[in-house]
């Protein structure tokens, strides 16, 4: 996993996703360069003058009654006093540029610069569908100020490139005399008045080019967009990261999350600091080579993973239902490529990279518990238009339909495939079962490839009965008295302390003793122990997941402490789960309590 600043991951993922999605349809990659500069002294003063910092400062001081306005005003004063400012410019080439009229309903320009939580991306393989990529830009600016300079790939709306505009996100505030209300956002651009009133618009052509030179925002002679984050900072970092450390983290995160696009030649990423450029290369980060080997060796796949570096493949069904408007569904499939790990390949070991046509890793799905002492592995799950990668096949209609389905299954963070509001609004009945069955199908397929000879034995349920009570706590808070539900449920659970992440990891599987019963709900709580006796002290459950299709997951509070709760669909007779606690620096012995609601099957 990433060892850098967690907050930087979101920024890098969103920025690269936007550029990768805007790549022109040719045989050239989208080229993205992150340029880190710290301007000092006269250079900083000239830059701030070109930025018209006094106007920004005046409005920020009028908004100091709000928390964000106060922070911006303080940042401006700090920059003036120190005569120093750090700027990050993200420059992409071979991309579309900021196409579209100033107030077009849907365009690259309005989606990136004007609209909030909106995306105009319409391609089957576009990585984003919520338009959050640009929202993160302002969050990483100490002044909440972002500048744009774009060379358009076509004359839409004019052929007078470049196009320059800036925007700051200020709280709503009033003029000093209180007579005028300013609605938050401030603009750097031209003011155009018409019958609808004055409005800010882009600066074009020679004037834009001259201003861009003064703002260190000049562009190469190629279509694309340069985005400048003014007073760049990582808001979640405890201390300011130096430029070299930022450069190293950006390049590694680019490979971690976009190695598929880089591997296929669709994306190139570089970081420039003090005039020196560092290319993001898969070769510099060998921990991702096992994943690219899955694609390289796909044609030579084997049926069993007998030796290190062997690659096996299997298909997983994904039945996409019809759309609510009558659009086609399909009996689609995902392809799972699994490579047996070699000695020393520890990073991302026993993880599955989920990838679709956008070329970004949506998620690294940890399946360490599947190994059970057998072969360690690295795996890639290819879906949508990525499914035929590594073969001579081209994606067809079925892959396009699956691509659209998986895109709709991504939440705003684009970090997993789950039931979303977009899925619910777009697809007919059956979408939930389809998307929530992906992980359980991946797990079962992996078991057949990497742990085919595991004998699970018959001692698990008895061991569970001896060590862990399944059922609700008694009224007095003790878990010693066996509840009625524990007499109706069997299963197996495990809990252990993870020294690396300083938390407790747990997993389990439960099912009714009688075939006539079904599971209505499972609640997992973590109880601290004292001399083998349960205490009233509880450790919060940080996260819980399930391989069982159709399970609804939540983290409600119980007795003021967060627990894990799973609610399966009707008719479910077995539920598996795994999860982790919050960090436990005390490392007190902790046991897991599993409470199961069992009832007679509703179809009986």
Task: Describe the 3D structure.
With 604 residues, the protein is of the alpha+beta class. It folds into three domains: 6-116 and 131-283, Heat Shock Protein 90; 287-450, no CATH class; 489-600, Sandwich (Immunoglobulin-like). Helix content is 25%, strand content 31%. The protein is built from 15 helices and 29 strands. The strands form seven sheets. Strands 1, 2, 3, 4, 7, 10, 11, 12 and 13 form a nine-stranded mixed sheet that branches. It has a five-stranded mixed sheet with strand order 14-15-18-16-17, sandwiched between helices. Strand 5 (173-174) and strand 6 form a beta hairpin. Helix 1 packs across helix 6 (132-139). It is globular and about 75 Å long. The model is unreliable at 117-133 and 452-486 (pLDDT under 50).
Structural class: alpha+beta
What's the CATH topology name of the largest domain? Answer: Heat Shock Protein 90
Assigned CATH architecture of the largest domain: 2-Layer Sandwich
Radius of gyration (Å): 27 Å
Low-confidence stretches: 117-133, 452-486
Given the structure, what is the number of helices? Answer: 15
CATH superfamily of the largest domain: Histidine kinase-like ATPase, C-terminal domain
Helix content: 25-40%
Largest sheet: 9 strands, mixed
Task: Estimate the global geometry from the Cα principal axes.
Answer: globular
CATH class of the largest domain: Alpha Beta
Number of domains: 3
Mean pLDDT: 85
Strand content: 25-35%
Give me the count of strands. 29
Measured distance between first and last alpha carbons: 47 Å
Organism: Haloferax massiliensis
Region (Disordered): 153-181, 453-491, 562-588
Protein name: Histidine kinase-, DNA gyrase B-, and HSP90-like ATPase
């Amino acid at each position: 996993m990433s060892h850098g600043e967690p907050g930087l991951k979101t920024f890098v993922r969103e920025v690269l996703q936007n550029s990768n999605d805007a790549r022109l349809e040719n045989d050239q990659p989208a080229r993205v360069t992150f340029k880190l500069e710290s301007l000092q002294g006269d250079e900083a003063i000239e830059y701030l003058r070109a930025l018209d910092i006094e106007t920004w400062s005046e409005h920020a001081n009028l908004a100091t009654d709000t928390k964000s306005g106060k922070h911006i005003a303080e940042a401006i004063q700090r920059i003036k006093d120190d005569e120093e400012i750090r700027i990050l410019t993200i420059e992409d080439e071979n991309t579309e540029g900021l196409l579209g009229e100033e107030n077009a309903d849907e365009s690259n320009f309005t989606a990136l610069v004007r609209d909030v939580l909106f995306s105009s991306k319409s391609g089957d393989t576009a990585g984003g569908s919520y338009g959050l990529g640009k929202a993160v830009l302002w969050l990483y600016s100490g002044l909440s100020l972002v500048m744009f300079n774009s060379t358009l790939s076509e004359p839409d709306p004019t052929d007078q490139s470049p196009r320059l505009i800036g925007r700051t996100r200020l709280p709503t505030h009033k003029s000093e005399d209180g007579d005028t209300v300013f609605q938050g956002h401030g603009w750097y651009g031209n003011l155009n008045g018409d019958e609808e009133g004055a409005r800010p618009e882009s600066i074009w052509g020679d004037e834009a080019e001259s201003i861009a030179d003064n703002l260190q925002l000049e562009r190469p002679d190629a279509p694309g967009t340069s985005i400048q984050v003014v007073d760049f900072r990582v808001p979640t970092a405890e201390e300011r990261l130096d430029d070299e450390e930022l450069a190293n983290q950006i390049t590694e995160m680019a490979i971690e999350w976009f190695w598929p696009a880089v591997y296929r030649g669709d994306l190139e990423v570089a970081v420039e600091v003090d005039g020196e450029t560092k290319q993001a290369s898969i070769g510099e980060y060998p921990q991702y080579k096992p994943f690219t080997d899955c694609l390289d060796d796909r044609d030579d796949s084997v049926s069993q993973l007998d030796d290190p570096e062997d690659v096996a493949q299997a298909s997983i069904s994904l039945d996409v239902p019809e759309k609510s408007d009558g659009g086609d569904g399909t009996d689609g499939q995902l392809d799972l490529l699994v490579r047996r790990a070699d000695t020393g390949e520890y990073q991302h070991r026993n993880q599955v990279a989920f990838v679709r046509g956008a070329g970004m890793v949506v998620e690294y799905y940890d399946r360490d518990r599947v190994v059970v002492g057998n072969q360690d592995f690295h795996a890639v799950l290819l879906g949508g238009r990525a499914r035929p990668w590594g073969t001579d096949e081209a994606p067809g209609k079925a892959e396009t339909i699956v691509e659209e389905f998986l895109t709709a299954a991504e939440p705003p963070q684009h970090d997993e495939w789950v039931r979303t509001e977009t899925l619910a609004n777009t697809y007919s009945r059956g979408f939930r079962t389809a998307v929530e069955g992906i992980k359980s199908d991946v797990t079962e397929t992996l078991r057949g490839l990497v742990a085919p000879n595991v004998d699970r034995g018959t001692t698990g349920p008895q061991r569970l009965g001896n060590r862990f009570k399944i059922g609700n706590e008694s009224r007095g808070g003790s878990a010693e008295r066996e509840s009625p539900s524990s007499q109706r449920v069997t299963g197996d659970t495990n809990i252990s302390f993870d020294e690396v992440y300083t938390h407790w990891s747990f997993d389990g599987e439960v099912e009714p003793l009688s075939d006539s019963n079904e599971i209505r709900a499972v609640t997992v709580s973590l109880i601290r122990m004292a001399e083998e006796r349960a205490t009233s002290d509880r450790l919060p459950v940080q996260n819980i997941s399930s391989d069982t299709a159709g399970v609804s997951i939540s983290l409600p509070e119980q007795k003021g402490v967060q627990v894990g709760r799973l609610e399966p669909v009707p008719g479910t007779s077995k539920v598996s789960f795994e999860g982790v606690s919050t960090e436990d620096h005390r490392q007190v012995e902790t046991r897991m309590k599993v409470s199961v609601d069992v009832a007679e099957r509703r179809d009986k």
